[in-house]
Amino acid sequence: MTTHPLPDAPTLRELAERLLHHPHPDGPTSVELIVGALSASLPPTLPLPAGARVIGSAMYSRGDQRLSMSAVFDVPETPTVTLTQYEAELTRHGWTTPEDFRPMHGGFVFSEMGEWRSYREGDRGPDLTAVVRARDGGSQAAPMLRSPGARGRSPAAAAGGACEWYSPSLNPPSAS
Length: 176
Prior knowledge:
It contains three helices and seven strands, in the order αβββαββββα. By secondary structure, it is α+β, with helices and mostly antiparallel strands. It has one domain. A seven-stranded antiparallel beta sheet has the order 1-2-3-7-6-5-4, sandwiched between helices. The chain is globular.
């Protein structure tokens, strides 16, 4: 077995950002990883769940346009309690659950998906999908914030990927 030296933090960040990069016909997409914090460019009306410990976030951009943000934080409550409390906090800050957000019924649903709810700030957005899974006596929350132009797509798809989170890309076999 080959052993590799442990890389330093800047090398790990560079590796992760390159692995998360998604090419797109409209121009290159970049990913900024923020360890232990959220991006300073988030809407001031976006609260954190009570008792949240921020693990970090990823901001997807194309040029100067912010497309989406994904974050991970741990919360001491169960998924149901976390979502209920977070919804109350979002509502106090003007976020709503619009009519066009409908949960999936039937078909194939990933068993580890966790509980989720979607919200919108005002009439135009941005949109927020909060996904919460049970973890070590509490919950892991993974909110995904999308700019109004990226509505209805995963953060990876909004950043230029072709729904890589949901299905592999398929290519025809090469002619021999």
